[in-house]
Amino acid sequence: MRKMLAILLTSAAVAAPAAAQDTVKIGMLQGFTGPTESLVKPMAEGGEMAIQEVSDSGVFMGGMKVVSVRGDSTCIDAAAATAAAERLVTSEGVAGINGATCSGATTAVLNNVARPNGMVLISPSATSPALTTIEDDGYFFRTAPSDARQGEIIGDILERRGIKTAALTYTNNDYGKGLADSIQAAFEAKGGTITAVAAHEDGKADYSAEVGTLAAAGGEVLIVAGYLDQGGKGMIQASLDTGAFDRFVLPDGMVGQALTDHFGDALDGSIGTNPGTDSPGADMLAELAEGKGFKGDDPYVPEAYDASALILLAMQAANSTDPAVYKDEIMMVANAPGEKIFPGELKKALQILADGGDIDYVGGTALELIEPGESAGSFRETIVENGEFTTVMYH
User: Fold this and answer.
1) Under CATH, what is the fold of the domain 11-146+279-375?
2) pLDDT, tens digit, for every residue of 38-69?
3) What confidence tier does 12 reach under pLDDT thresholds 50, 70, 90?
4) Which residues pair with 221 in a beta bridge?
5) Smallest Cα–Cα separation from 343: which of 102, 79, 46, 92?
6) Domain spanning 147-276+378-394 has what CATH number?
7) What residues does each domain of the chain span?
8) Phi then psi for 204, rounded to 5 degrees?
9) Are 126 and 103 in contact (CB under 8 A)?
10) 74-103 burial, b if ≥16 CB within 10 A, otherwise e?
11) What is the largest CA-CA distance in the chain?
């Protein structure tokens, strides 16, 4: 059993203004603008739903409130992400950060802000394999699995579906390159052939040259390791316009309703993958989000909810909002032993911790953190039917 100290207010805290001492700020550092904009809105709301749940509990740190402070990491602009994170830490005084959305921005924030300032950073969606081995001094975690795992899943799916050849394009950044390398290695290990690989830049008006290079090499499908709101969408558009490819494999950054809203049934037969689980927690989170303006099972919403929950539960376990102190409790609250905790049960978890007990936070993703602090992960396989992503199975 974890031995908890009684939560006492010091005389200084009593004398201080309530906003300074009785409210904890959590940074919500996501790509509110940029190539994942349509994904981020529900993600942020999912993360803030957990924050609100803890704030409303009346149990957190003896009755402290919690608020979210947003910052725009833009996904692809490392300088903007760094500046936004600096504002959250130095001006807003956040005690933890949920973010960033994309791998390049997350790397920049970790190296330039979180690590130098001793700030806990939990990303719900940065999946680059390079983040597994990055120096972080114990301050970085992620509730999404590495793309090393996603590459293996995609290799398995292509083999099972009898696809022998594929062309591959990736957004030219840490996320895209890491994912593309993982997919290629896994597919070729299964006996498949990558006919051609071509990077693409986000924000271009025309992708016909890149598509032409890939089409010349052939392939039964085009794997698009990109972003659904910019370059990845452009690669699909150019492929359909020229007739180069009509079937696509869409990893996580391409899976979202905005894509199917745009292309409709032109994407029918295309395959998607994104982190997901059919665990009880996933259904509970979907129900919890009903009537709140977003879907609890949208891509990376469960991961965002879990990221916020982990930060706040670790604070409660450590009886401290100091990142240098509570970072050491994150792995503890995320894993066994302890009472299993699901979405909507954060008040219960906070009370168990306040009473000196142990929890095993399962959350919306069937979360299990492995060293060095990332999700072991499971994935959802989808197929586009009648212009909609439809779940096939979980891996």
Assistant:
1) Rossmann fold (3.40.50)
2) 999 999 999 999 999 999 999 999 999 999 99
3) very low
4) 166
5) 46
6) 3.40.50.2300
7) 11-146+279-375, 147-276+378-394
8) -80, 155
9) yes
10) bbbbbebbbbbbbbbbeebebbbbbbbbbb
11) 74
